[in-house]
Amino acid sequence: MRLLTTLLLVGVLSGGYAADTISGLQFADGKDRSAQDFRTQPAIMVYFSGQCPSARAWMGSRVKSVYLWLEKNHINATLILITPDVPASELMDLDSERDYHMVNALYAYDPANPLHVSLQNIYQVRLLEPDGSLQTLPYNDLFGAVQEHLAPDQTGSRTYPYRISNQGLSDPDVVDAWWAVERGRPDAVQDLVSAARGSPPGSQGRILLDRVTAFYQAQEANLCAAPATMETLESLEALLSEAKGITLKKAKGRYHDLTHDKALKDELQARDEYAQCDALLHSGKEQDRSDAKDGLGIIASRSPNTLYGRKAAARLQVLSGGTSAPSAN
Fold first, then answer.
1. Could you tell me the pTM of the whole model?
2. Contact present, 259 and 28 (Cβ < 8 Å)
3. Is residue 20 within 8 Å of 126, Cβ to Cβ?
4. How does pLDDT run across 189-202, given as a tens digit for each residue?
5. Containing H/E element for 161?
6. Is 83 helix (H, G, I), strand (E, B) or coil?
7. Whole-angstrom Cα Rg for the chain
């Protein structure tokens, strides 16, 4: 988890800086993300037609080979699988039904579809680098292109730093536990705590637990010293959720204080209203989706100086097709 930040509005897809190609996507796990969440690692953005048999086969072979390579070699990059055809609530069912089994990738529904993915344009791939640059990758040699861009060379210059060191870890079970925590998977920290607390001092499991505990305690210290903003509150929220199983009393206290801070009253109200609009956008009823757009407009105009007022404005622009994007290949 990383600090949630203000959404960027206008983007250019080229070799230069790319604005937010992530915001506006509806992720299967229900979390909001922006390009700023990928400041420390690349994101491989695979756009595919959920209706096309050829795209289905391509996902299950070439994209799956990339997924397995990332996981097996612990490459610090995120695979984002994006379609305009399947709502977010059904994407994990699609993963299972089609035997993709790429559950550690991020699935997302793209309501705006700026690349015009369809039965006539069945897949597109972009590589979003931590510096914000965006490159088009060839879909006919996706595995080779990803390896070329992300495989470490002899100097390790193309590697991206891990959040938590894996140095000295050789036990396969401990390495698996480290990778789950490193990727921020649900309940990974809690599972590690349960497994490692019964291990003897000096064992690899206990060494990993000590490293993980130190990492989250450092985050706790930083956030407890951070300004009283909505970004700090949400980062504490994310920290407490991800680090469940580790005692972080100061973070809990700071989070409680911020949720009752009168200065954040308007911020919290805008967030609640935004969540209601988000739920309506996921509805199968056209009227609900129309009401959601109206609601986003109200939040944006009434609360322009709040985090979710800005998010509402950005979301509305994406839904209205106002995001700048290239024509599809």
1. 0.80
2. no
3. no
4. 999 999 988 888 88
5. none
6. strand
7. 21
